[in-house]
Amino acid sequence: MRQHTYPYLTLAEREEKPRKVGRTLVQDKGASLADMENVLKTTGPYIDYYKPSSIYHAIFPEEFTFRKIEMLKEYDIKPFMGGNVAELAYAQGTLEEHLAYTKDHGWEATEISETYISFPEDLKIDLIKRCADDGLEVFYEWGLKLPTKPLIPEEAAEQICRYLEAGVSVAILEEGEVDMLIGKDGEGDYPDRLKKLFELVGPENLMVESNELKQIGWFMREMGTVINIGNLNYDQVADIEPLRYGIGRAVDYAIYQPYLET
Fold first, then answer.
1. For 216-256, what is each residue's pLDDT tens digit?
2. How many domains does one find in the chain?
3. Residue 173's beta-bridge partner residues?
4. Which of 133, 147, 191, 208 is the most buried (most CB within 10 A)?
């Protein structure tokens, strides 16, 4: 049981790691080891996956990234390989080297995305199965960065479930798709489509990309602490985690509500 300040106050229950719901994925684009360690010391218990952000870390020495992986494991956080690296490796003809590199150097979760490069469907399924067989937790990023129309829940669910059956652990809903449905402020025109997608696929199988406070507040108010959130900046967790407990304006200080009802 986690220890909190003010032990006499009642807080919402929070599943311990390894969690199935309420998971948090963060990214950094090159934080120093000292800055990263300071974040982990305070919010490490609330971070499930940490992405030394994809292509950005390509410009740093391997020792820098490998040390981050070591630190993450000290805090029971899974190092997460971003999908853009696999996309570029595929484009450059080095996908096999990338897969071996991911497995051999300590990453525990990997993402298959199609942001810039599209994989043939049979190759995509094969990648999912191979990575899962290698012991990696596999994420698939679904959706477009710049969609022109809102998703149809039944169609999205059909595709996502196909990848879940192949071995994907969690499907990440692209930020652009989330914005199209509920807007950056949670006041978009298609919230029912988003809720329907979660109903069809299950909250444990979906993760939303978001680092907008008002948008995340909407998720917490409408869908509760079970929401899996991805692509937070590594230093945002201290601002977002309290929302899972009903603490903060973005969730209307819901922690008080049971005691104010008459």
1. 999 999 998 889 999 999 999 999 999 999 999 999 999 99
2. 1
3. 142, 208
4. 208
pLDDT of 43 > 90? The answer is yes
Q: Hey, what are 156's tokens?
A: 């999205």
Asked if residue 7 is part of any domain, the answer here is no
DSSP string of 104-143, one letter each residue: HTT--EEEE--SS-PPPHHHHHHHHHHHHHTT-EEEEEES
Question: Which token pair is 136?
Answer: 């990696």
Q: What angle do CA 241, 56, 110 make, to 5 degrees?
A: 65
Q: What angle do CA 109, 113, 118 make, to 5 degrees?
A: 145
Q: Does residue 6 sit within a domain?
A: no
**25 forms bridges with which residues in the sheet?**
49
Helix (H, G, I), strand (E, B) or coil at 232: strand
Q: Could you tell me if 24 and 240 are in contact, meaning their C-beta atoms sit under 8 angstroms apart?
A: yes
- Tell me, what CATH number does 208's domain have? 3.20.20.70
Name residue 142's beta-bridge partners: 173
**Selection from 124, 71, 69, 72 nearest residue 101 by Cα:** 69
Tell the residue number behind the tokens 């444990």, with chain if given. 204
Instruction: Supply 61's token pair.
Output: 């020495």
Single out the residue of 170, 108, 166, 105 nearest to residue 134, CA to CA. 108
Q: What is the pLDDT of residues 73-120, one digit of tens each?
A: 999 999 999 999 999 999 999 999 999 999 999 999 999 999 889 999
